[in-house]
Amino acid sequence: MTEIVVRALTEDEWELLRSLRLNALRESPDAFVASYDDEAEESEEFWRARLSRSRRLVAEADGEAAGLVSIGTLDGVDNGAEFFGLWVAPQWRGRSIAANLVKSGATYAAEQGFDRIAYWVGTDNGRAVAFASSFGFRPTGRRRPMRVQNGDGDEEEIAMVLPLTEDRRGF
Hints:
The structure is a single chain. The chain has 171 residues and is α+β, with helices and mostly antiparallel strands. 30% of the residues lie in helices and 32% in strands. The protein is built from 5 helices and 7 strands. The radius of gyration is 16 Å and the shape is globular.
C-alpha cells in the first residue's frame, strides 16, 4: 500500500515548488493561466516570494513528489480561503493524491481560522464539480469568466464552497 504524506513546503524548498509547477505547466498547459515559457525563466526570488504569499502543500507518495495545491485568501470574502493550482502527476492520478491534498488543505485552512474554503471550477467541467462535491463543496452564486480559455470564450467558473465551521453559511 502506498503511503501518502502531505506537508507544507518551506521557503527553502523553492526548487521543489519550481520543479512541480513547471511539470504541471508542461503536462497540463490548458489548466493554468500561466505558461511554462513564462515561469521557466523566473528567478529564485520569484519562487521564494510565491512561497511566502500562500501556503503550498505537496503530496509525496512512496517518497516521490506526486502533487501540489495552493491555499490562499479568497478575495472579497471575509474569512474565506481558496484552493488553486491543484495538480497531480499523471502516474499518480486516481490513487488518492488529490483527495489527500484537498483534505489536508481544508484542515490547514480550518487551523488558520478560516471558516470556509472555495474551489473555482469550470461550469462545464462535470468531473471537477463531482470531485469537489464528493468532499462537501457546494455551488454558490459566485461566478466569473473562465481565467483559462480553452473554448469559445463564454465559459464561466463557479465558486464551490466547503464550510469549515459549524456555521454552514455560504458567501
